[in-house]
Write a structure and sequence with these properties.
The structure is a homodimer.
Chain A lengths: L38 H12 L19 H9 L12 H17 L11 E5 L2 H22 L8 E5 L4 H9 L3 E5 L10 H7 L4 E7 L11 H15 L5 E4 L7 H4 L12 E7 L11 E5 L11 E5 L2 E5 L9 H39 L2 E3 L8 E6 L7 H10 L6 E3 L8 E6 L6 H20 L16 E3 L2 E6 L8 E6 L9
Helix pairs in contact in A: 2-9, 3-9, 6-7, 9-11, 10-11
InterPro entries (chain B): Glutamate_decarboxylase (IPR010107), PyrdxlP-dep_de-COase (IPR002129), PyrdxlP-dep_Trfase (IPR015424), PyrdxlP-dep_Trfase_major (IPR015421)
Catalytic activity (chain B): L-glutamate + H(+) = 4-aminobutanoate + CO2
GO molecular function (chain B): calmodulin binding; glutamate decarboxylase activity; pyridoxal phosphate binding
């Protein structure tokens, strides 16, 4: 006697994923589901939702590496189950980290002897690296002030207003005052003279950036060093420099080797660099190196027993994956000086192609310089009818993610679009991007102007802008902001 | 005219890696090489060196997950080039994190309404999670003291001496005093009564551990809560509790659902759990959740503009991979309650198998309890001739990595071996491990006693000899022993 089964009762494993009931049920968002589901269904459902994320390689907003060779991918996958912190169990992985630290310290001209080991550590990114470096400066300064019998409760750090948000985090979480040198129109990095003026007895260090986030410029660390040496002489202080070379640390040594910004300058005591930016590794690896042992107070270091020998560690994170450390070592030996130089030169070439393409449209001012990080920051010559934010929005439809930002104080009226040239951004893509930007400009020219209230940022201004009045009504988080266009009658025809 | 080339000048791509010159040169260790090498050579050289690392799955020292399903590996590899912090570019990945936070908060019985969003964040591990939680407590306490016009320069935190090193890091880096409740022989967790006694006006919180690193024990958070409620009533303070559920957070809800340790207790304000331990994800993911918004001071939160809406963030790390967040979500929906329960039940079963196997040898005292994190911590009944460190060392030859530790103050004279039962430690492996332990004990029995200087970790009870002296001494013993053997038996090659 054959009993007919209802489809949903047949053995699950018979059904292809899209034939099964799993694609008919809504996934819980707030609570763990009670039952398990087959792994194929779990994979498919998540994979499909993730299709709606942006394409990492078209994400021109980020400095962070989005492509590595398949051989490296293979190494990464095979070490994905190694917990980096188990130094005793994975001695080779630990040694690879030590080799990377040494190579990077030498790259930055740390004053080390032939076989002397460098002082430094691998981190999860430049944020952790900066916090460690800042912590070292803070502790050194506190110890010195305590020894001198002076108050040590109000440490501060001097940086430019162009600093990346991790410096603000460091200041807020570790209770250090952030003294920012304001920018001005046309000068978007920290002014060394103003910085040195702001230094006082409570300054734990001055932080310079090699590769400003906003326009890729290298700050003049040499000038800062020289001015600071003078000030130190006058005041008897010993204020040091930290160089945030998150982006620039893997660029300057290869295409600007004569530029003095690293340990060649005596006041530079620590440097951080992101392995996952121009170190050419996927997200999740940074490095910090100190000039020498004295610059890292011993009381901050935890000594772990490692194979019977002492392995000093100084990190905020403990357990983490090993893959990125191994990938960094892969890149350092696979490419060598020659390879990195070639990659950086290619980036620079393609940056110039993009820059010239944009200049040729006649519609943009180029805000970034040719030297520095290979990126192009540009703003509209005329942003009265359409803004950079609208261009950014429309480019998304073509697949490109190009962010638009306003400058920090005191240049908030300037808005720029920024395209970062990474290793995997070829000339073909650069030319295609120029074409797509031209298409976008053409489209926008035909549209009536919107309110300049930065819809994509969700700010709630409503403005009366000449011919148009637009009011944005933002209800709740769930409802999208509604826009009511109220156009006054004009002489021009209206295109739909 | 054919010119013969020497091998090293032929087109490199012709040579197989092991035929090329790249395996003949020594890799630099201190400086970057000048030239590039082919990717195949780079891969092979690194891969080969890494063969000498331990096998992660035989690393019985670690709680951290060492195996995931191939489907999940696939998802991870596909998202390896996504920088998690680019929330605007990867909105789905960000939403997956938010879903995980909500699921975990509800797993811990956070007092949330049906569609109410939980307060929490994904981190790189419990270290970051604990630092964030500690920072929140510190700032809350400072604000309160400032408002009361009282001094706020000497914050302290009360924990047991059994805390994991990240609490010491938190204390040292964020300038908070660590007040540790000492252990004693036979009692290897924080005593709630002693802890509450140590609480004073400068205490920012009391940290309890659900799943002590040393013995896997769950601390009695309920008792701590009740005692602290009384103390708060007497003193007028409002000291809160943080539960470090790094290991236990993904075990207790499934194996011990009636155990009250989470937000069901009113003084528990924040909880951290490691996604990469019993959350069953590879290394690199942790979670911290707060009871309510008011437990996380707004001044610590950075507000990032995300798709026109506000995405509050509170992390120490910025750029990092997205793979582990996606993998955590995969596990939560793939397994569900049922699946996690099954895995934890299996771990507990296999833990019992190992425990009973070790007890049957008659040579060990079991220090760990049956309830708690599935692990077996045990010490030698008689460690006068050979100690636990030698057992650990000898076991390495069989491939197993089983660590030996001394207990912290005040039980430093106790040494334990500890085996952690993870998801991928099957019964077959447990039985094999017992068999190998027996072999090791048998070997050690036939060896003469070594110096009591604990060479493995460099602690010396008496005079600390140099490495050379100790080695010589051991070699001398071996020589005598081997000679004695030779004289009794026929020589067999």
């Amino acid at each position: 006697m054959v009993l007919s089964h209802a489809a949903s009762d047949s053995d699950i494993s018979v059904h292809s994923t899209f034939a099964s009931r799993y694609v008919r049920t809504s996934l819980p968002r707030f609570r763990m589901p009670e039952n398990s589901i087959p792994k194929e269904a779990a994979y498919q459902i998540i994979n499909d939702e993730l299709m709606l994320d942006g394409n990492p390689r078209l994400n021109l907003a980020s400095f962070v590496t989005t492509w590595m060779e398949p051989e490296c991918d293979k190494l990464i996958m095979s070490s994905i189950n190694k917990n980096y912190v188990d130094m005793d169990e994975y001695p080779v992985t630990t040694e690879l980290q030590n080799r990377c630290v040494n190579m990077i310290a030498h790259l930055f001209n740390a004053p080390l002897g032939e076989t002397e080991t460098a002082v430094g550590v691998g981190t999860v990114g430049s944020s952790e690296a900066i916090m460690l470096a800042g912590l070292a400066f803070k502790r050194k300064w506190q110890n010195k002030r305590r020894a001198e019998g002076k108050p040590f409760d109000k440490p501060n750090i001097v940086t430019g207003a162009n600093v990346q948000v991790c410096w603000e985090k460091f200041a807020r979480y570790f209770e250090v005052e952030l003294k920012e040198v304001k920018l001005r129109e046309g000068y978007y990095v920290m002014d060394p003279e103003q910085a040195v003026e702001m230094v006082d007895e409570n300054t734990i260090c001055v932080a310079a950036i090699l590769g400003s986030t906003l326009n890729g410029e290298f700050e003049d660390v040499k000038l800062l060093n020289d001015l600071l040496v003078l000030k130190n002489k006058e005041t008897g202080l010993d204020v040091p420099i930290h160089v945030d070379a998150a982006s620039g640390g893997f660029i300057a040594p290869f295409i600007y080797p004569e530029l003095e910004w690293d340990f060649r300058l005596p006041q530079v005591k620590s440097i951080n660099v992101s392995g996952h930016k121009y170190g050419l590794v996927y997200a999740g690896i940074g490095w910090v190196v100190w000039r020498n042992k004295e610059d890292l107070p011993d009381e901050l270091i935890f000594h772990i027993n490692y194979l019977g020998a002492d392995q000093p560690t100084f990190t905020l994170n403990f357990s983490k994956g090993s893959s990125q450390v191994i990938a960094q070592y892969y890149q350092l030996i696979r490419l060598g000086h020659e390879g990195y130089r070639n990659v950086m030169e290619n980036c620079r070439e393609n940056m110039i192609v993009l820059r010239e393409g944009l200049e040729k449209t006649g519609r943009f001012n180029i805000v970034s310089k040719d030297e520095g990080i290979p990126l192009v920051a540009f703003s509209l010559k005329d942003n009265s009818s359409h803004t950079e934010f609208e261009i950014s929005e429309m480019l998304r439809r073509y697949g490109w993610i190009v962010p638009a930002y306003t400058m920090p104080a005191n240049a908030e009226h300037i808005t720029v679009l920024r395209v970062v040239i990474r290793e995997d951004f070829s000339r073909t893509l650069a030319e295609r991007l120029v074409m797509d930007i031209e298409k976008v400009m053409h489209e926008l020219d035909e549209l009536p102007s919107r309110v300049i209230h930065k819809i994509s940022l969700g700010e709630l201004k409503s403005e009366d802008n000449g011919d148009n009045m637009v009011v944005t009504v933002k209800k709740s988080d769930i409802e999208k902001p509604k826009e009511i266009n109220v156009k006054k009658k004009t002489d021009k025809p209206i295109f739909c």
